[in-house]
Amino acid sequence: MKRVKGFTLLELMVVLAILGALLGVVAPNLSFDSQKQQLQQEAQSLQHALQTQIDQAWLEGQTTLVKRNIDTVRWLRQSDKGWQEKGSAYDISDNLDSFVTTDTRQLRAAEKSLGVTEPVDLIFLSTGEYLAFRWALRNRSGEEIVIVGDGINALSLE
């Protein structure tokens, strides 16, 4: 009897079942990692943009206001015409939610002393100081990274 080289149907089905099980375990983690990676990149990018504004306020001796809407962060500096936008705005990714928390009472008092007529989210003083804050970014999966500023030191991520 002549023997044909190759795999039996049973062997092929076992290999396909093992590959299917492995793919089922690995595939959800791949998309999860990409969402988490995008969140991490966005948090680092926003942290860098905020830290740059804090440093520039101190180096240039000018207070910077931070005003945020749903997906854009604007920087305002005082000029002869009042508070004007300075530089390009920072755009937050559409699939992320953004929440800023700080001591609202102190923030409103600072706005009043600076003559700010519209509410802002943060104020970076010309001395390099700012009110402590937490800026959370959350993706659609519910994962969250928080940018933390203690009022004096460099910003950090949690």
UniProtKB/TrEMBL annotation:
The chain crosses the membrane at residues 7-27. Coiled coil: none annotated. InterPro entries: N_methyl_site (IPR012902), Pilin-like (IPR045584). Keywords: Membrane, Transmembrane, Transmembrane helix. PROSITE patterns: PROKAR_NTER_METHYL (PS00409). This is Type II secretion system protein GspH. It comes from Marinomonas piezotolerans.
